[in-house]
Amino acid sequence: ALTHRTLSSRRESITTPLTTVDECVKTRDALAKALYSRNFLRLIELINKAIHTEMRELSMGVLDIYGFEIFKHNSFEQLCINY
Predict the structure, then answer these.
(1) Over the stretch 17-46, which tens digit does the pLDDT of each residue have?
(2) Are 61 and 44 in contact (CB under 8 A)?
(3) What does the alpha-carbon distance between residue 74 and residue 77 come to, in Å, rounded to a whole number?
(4) pTM above 0.85, yes or no
(5) C-alpha–C-alpha distance, residues 37 and 32, integer Å
(6) Cβ atoms of residues 15 and 2 within 8 Å
(7) Across the strands, what pairs with 8?
(8) Measured between alpha carbons, how far is 26 from 6 in angstroms, rounded to an integer?
C-alpha cells in the first residue's frame, strides 16, 4: 500500500517498507497523480459520449492546454481554462 514497496519478477515478489518521509511523500504523490489521471480520462470519455453527434456541424471539441501539470499548485481557474 502506501507504506511498502513491492518489486515483482516472474518468479517472486519482494516487499520492503518505505523508510524515509521522502519515499512516503513520493508514493502518496504518485497515487494522487494516478487517481487524477484516471478520473480525468473517465470524465473526458463521459463528455465525449454526451456531446457525440452524427451531424458534424453540431459537434464540439475540447482542448486540453498543456503546462498546468508543471505548476506546484494548480487553481480552479486553471482547470476552467481548459473548458
Answers:
(1) 999 999 999 999 999 999 999 998 998 888
(2) no
(3) 8
(4) no
(5) 9
(6) no
(7) 13
(8) 15
